[in-house]
Amino acid sequence: MSNRRSRQSSSAPRISDDQMIDLVTKLRQILPEIGQRRRSDKVSASKVLQETCNYIRNLNREVDNLSERLSQLLESVDEDSPEAAVIRSLLM
Amino acid sequence: MASADKLINTDVPEKDVFALHFLRSLSNLRTQNPLNSPDKSIDRVRKIKKAAYVSMARAAGGNSRLWSRALLRRAAKDDNKSVRFSRRKRKVTWKISSKRRRSNQRAPVVEEAAERLRNLVPGGGGMETSKLMEETAHYIKCLSMQVKVMQCLVDGLSQK
Known about the structure:
The complex is a heterodimer.
Chain A: H1 17-34, H2 45-75, H3 81-91
Chain B: H1 15-32, H2 41-59, H3 66-79, H4 98-103, H5 108-120, H6 129-158
Helix pairs in contact in B: 1-2, 1-6, 2-3, 2-6, 5-6
Domain BHLH (chain A): 4-59
Coiled coil (chain A): 49-76
Keywords (chain A): Coiled coil, Growth regulation, Nucleus, Transcription, Transcription regulation
């Protein structure tokens, strides 16, 4: 696996080819979230990983919040038809 | 090495797969505690949160992904239940001991950030960096799907 050292654009660390591909794949998914501030080949690997960490932490926090709200909502729910209809609509 | 030919598959199932698993988990929770509802609301929240992660791991493919496998194993350990594997084949896994992993290290800047990521992704500790990123991509997609499902549920239940 040859490391293409000619690819030293900014302070980009030495990355092998298949890792570059992985990074680009990851980037394409993360970019919509962070709003496409940079073009894909100029972002450094560690920056991508950092953004990913932040994103995961945000998602975990969202899960926490939503779990809390769900817990409150499910407590106040009785087994009546409106909620069953909601659940049925989600399953469709 | 023709690594460019190897397409990394990070497809996740549709949203309704996640919804179905999650709702099933929730209804199981309710049948487990019909009348003796736990007094502490934090217990309820914790159970729902756990149901969210476990159902997400199941929807994502159960044991077919390293992160989901690790998540389910961790959850089962908490319950002291035995983990049921659908296939007991000893396939070649990407799990590399940390000693071997160190020989494959990338630049230290990358490894530093990857280490932080390893703490966030289930099962990340045994993965080599490029595998870690593939798993992370799948994990993030599933997590955001799960969040969407929960948001829909909350929205639906809030509009009474």
